[in-house]
Structure formats: C-alpha cells, structure tokens
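Retro notes (design track)

What went well: tokenization of the new backbones is finally stable.
What didn't: we kept losing track of which sequence belonged to which structure.
Fix going forward: every design gets posted as structure first, then sequence, in one message. First example under the new rule, 223 residues:
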C-alpha cells in the first residue's frame, strides 16, 4: 500500500499526550511544598483513570480552533490509551515499553520505543530516575471559575515546553494547559472523569486490520 502523507497537526499530538502521562505517573514524588497539597493528594491516590477530553489549540486561527475530541484511559504503571474520535480518528497507546500511534483514517500504525521517542522532549520524564521536584519549579496559581490551578515549570532549558498547568476541582481533574517552547498553548478540558474505570484486557494494544501500513521503529534491521 502506498504511504500517504499525514496532516502536520497530527505530529504534535503524541508529545502533548506524553506530557500529561509523564506528569500523571511521576507526580507522586512531588515535594511537600506549601499550597500544593491538593495536587499531591490527587496524584498520590491515582491508580487508574478514564474520561472524555476536548483538546484545543488556543492560538489556532481557524474557527474550529484546532478542536479535537475523544476518550482516554490511564493505568499505572506505564499504560494509557488516548483515542481521538473527532475530527479524525487516531489512537495513541503506551504499553509500558512502546508508544503506538494508529491512524485509522490513513490506515497507518507507527511503533516507537518510549525511551528513544521521548528523548529531549517532555516525555523524557518517563525515562528519568530523578524526582519530579528536581525537574520542576512548582507553584500554586489563583483559583479561577472554581478550578484550582498549579503550574509546573521545567528547570531544564531543553525540555521542549515552557510550562504545564493542571486544573483541579474538588480533587478531580478538570483541565490542563501546555505551552511549548514556541509559545503555542494547547488546552485540554476533561469531563465524565472516573477513577477505577472498567478497563478491557486488550485496552493497551492495537489490532490493525489487514493492509495497514506498519512502521515499527523498534525492530533492528540486519544488513
């Protein structure tokens, strides 16, 4: 099957999702700084999570605002399923070792090793043994519209993003904002979020139909 080009906006999705995942899995190591008790409690209790999301590029000039919608599942340690349902259908899965990006519309599956794909990006948090409070300056922001905001600023200058903001309401995940190194901001709004959702046994794998173009970057080619 002849490969087809991907729309450019799809290439940014994995890094954004990995940022959310990295913070979710590593934030249990946050130091007990004043004003972040709610954030610490949320992550300390987090085992698995599921819900709906709306993703919007805040600086997108289009009327749609770069709007994407879908569902997600999150399970510690090292597993998530992020499914875009509108406007395009795409699934991003991590199984603890690999990152799988399955584009249903383009019939393409890309498989990457988490360590290699994450290097020099926000996802680098997933492969480091350092505590999160050593990587981030963390501070409490003012409450807005009943959402308590927390800002995490990377201490490293080559993280790929300027900050991540997490919004909680009554201890529940409500929103997240990421600003990259170019000043572009992406906002995630979450709804119908539940802890301990029913997670199918095959939730963190991909079964593409016959004829799918598979690009497995984890396979070592032999001369």
């Amino acid at each position: 099957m002849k490969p087809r080009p991907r729309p450019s906006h799809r290439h940014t999705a994995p890094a954004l999702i990995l940022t959310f995942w990295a913070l979710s899995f590593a934030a249990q190591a946050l130091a007990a700084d004043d004003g972040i008790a709610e954030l610490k409690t949320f992550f300390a209790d987090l085992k698995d999570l599921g819900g709906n999301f709306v993703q919007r590029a805040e600086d997108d000039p289009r009327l749609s605002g770069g709007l994407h919608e879908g569902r997600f599942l999150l399970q510690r340690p090292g597993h998530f399923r992020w499914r875009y349902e509108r406007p395009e259908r795409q699934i991003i899965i991590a199984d603890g070792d690999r990152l799988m990006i399955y584009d249903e519309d383009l019939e393409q599956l890309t498989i990457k090793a988490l360590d290699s794909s994450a290097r020099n990006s926000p996802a680098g948090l997933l492969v480091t043994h350092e505590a999160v409070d050593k990587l981030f300056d963390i501070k409490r922001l003012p409450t807005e519209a009943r959402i308590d905001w927390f800002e995490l600023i990377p201490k490293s200058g080559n993280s790929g993003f300027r900050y991540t903001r997490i919004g909680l309401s009554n201890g529940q995940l409500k929103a997240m904002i990421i600003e990259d190194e170019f000043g572009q901001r992406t906002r995630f709004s979450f709804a119908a979020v539940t802890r301990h959702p029913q997670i199918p046994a095959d939730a963190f794998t991909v079964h593409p139909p016959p004829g799918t173009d598979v690009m497995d970057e984890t396979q070592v080619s032999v001369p």
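Added context from the reviewer: Confidence is low (pLDDT under 50) at residues 28-32, 119-130.
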